[in-house]
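Predicting holo structure, S-adenosylmethionine bound.
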Amino acid sequence: MDHRNMDDFATRVTFARAWNTHAPEGERICNDSLALAFLSPEHQAAATTSQGRQTLEASWNDLERSLIAYVAVRTRVMDMFFAQALGAGMEQIVILGAGFDSRGYRLVSGTDRITVFEVDQPHMQENKKAALSQALGELPEHVRYVPVDFAAHDLGRELAKAGYSSTAATACILEGVSFFLAPDLADRVFGFLARAGGAGSMAAFDYVSSRILDKTSQEPFADLFIQYLAAMGEPYRFGLAPESLATFAGEQGLTLSANRSALQWRDHYSEYGGARLNPPGFFHIAQTLRT
Ligand SMILES: C[S@@+](CC[C@H](N)C(=O)[O-])C[C@H]1O[C@@H](n2cnc3c(N)ncnc32)[C@H](O)[C@@H]1O
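Done. Tokens:
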């Protein structure tokens, strides 16, 4: 996996969040007030000025429009899971492959007693901290940065060094990451997700249907999307069969509490601006609970 590609993807999804945050009412489904802080002045103008938006939108093909819509929908869904974790009194939130995820800064209030662990490659965290220091003045104490390469480090050990408790009620988020992992790495990361924290813990993640990988998906854009990623030098490597997830979760002692395609989530939020978005149906967002 090329780090420059991954950095580029992290910036692209942040741009998609900024784009939807500044979309007109009726199309706006997410609200990431910090997304602009991670973008260049050119990208900021492209997302916020009417001239920038018109020019860019006119240049997009349907697949690109659909991917932007997907990031907006998943931001809304993951924000909801994050807020649920806070409401449920979780003690820790672990964000794996955090990129420019801003939930630890915009959704946590002074009264929440929570530690947010952000896990990502060291250089990504340095870029993020520099941008946040400029935007916020200082970095909040409840966020801890855990530099980890999933392929090279023991995730549990590095988290423990940063103060993570393996028995506290924990919410884990894996967003925009699973599809890029080689299958053996995905096994390790999902293995951590399944066992993270103590009773009452929760995990939320998105994934692609394995049918787009074996080319049996009938979803619009499926083949085009695989070609698009391969051309960018970052082919998708890992998917799950949506219909097998409940059984798989049960085998790990987990309850599958949500498992919907991006289109179903879009419909779930249709009254909040989702109706005009058209994300690819092969993306899914799921949540598991441990009782
Ligand atoms: C597409 S970005 C998504 C970022 C963020 N979760 C979001 O949705 O905005 C993928 C992130 O996963 C991180 N990542 C990918 N492979 C990784 C690895 N082997 N170890 C640690 N982080 C990794 C990248 O650095 C990047 O920040």
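Residues 3-289 form a domain with the Rossmann fold fold (CATH 3.40.50.150).
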